[in-house]
Specification:
- The chain folds into two domains: about 35 residues, no CATH class; about 50 residues, no CATH class.
- It has four helices and two strands, in the order H-H-H-E-E-H.
- A hairpin with a 2-residue loop joins strand 1 and strand 2.
- Helix 1 packs antiparallel against helix 2 and helix 3 runs antiparallel to helix 4.
- The chain is rod-shaped.
């Protein structure tokens, strides 16, 4: 499967001559098609599933700590591949 720009496709259909009515039904089908990949949902899930972590690193005086936000790379891959859909 490949993702397409449905808005671009609908614009192309709209430019078809009016005597070609086939595009009207095709345009309806595109409008009804489910979203295959929702970037907003991916970002939402990445934010929700990430957690505060503490990074520890050595310094000349011992160790220093820094707060950060992180997510397991395998979990991130799963979210991206799913398109944000649970």
């Amino acid at each position: 499967m490949r993702l397409i720009d449905a808005d671009w496709l609908q614009e192309k259909f709209a430019k078809e001559p009016m005597e070609n009515r086939t595009y009207l039904r095709a345009n309806e089908i595109v409008a009804e098609a489910p979203t295959a990949y929702d970037v907003d949902k991916v970002v939402e899930r990445l934010e929700r599933d990430s957690q505060n972590i503490e990074i520890i690193y050595p310094t000349d005086q011992g160790y220093d700590y820094e707060d950060a936000v992180g997510i397991d790379i395998n979990k991130a891959k799963e979210i991206v591949k799913s398109g944000g859909i649970e």
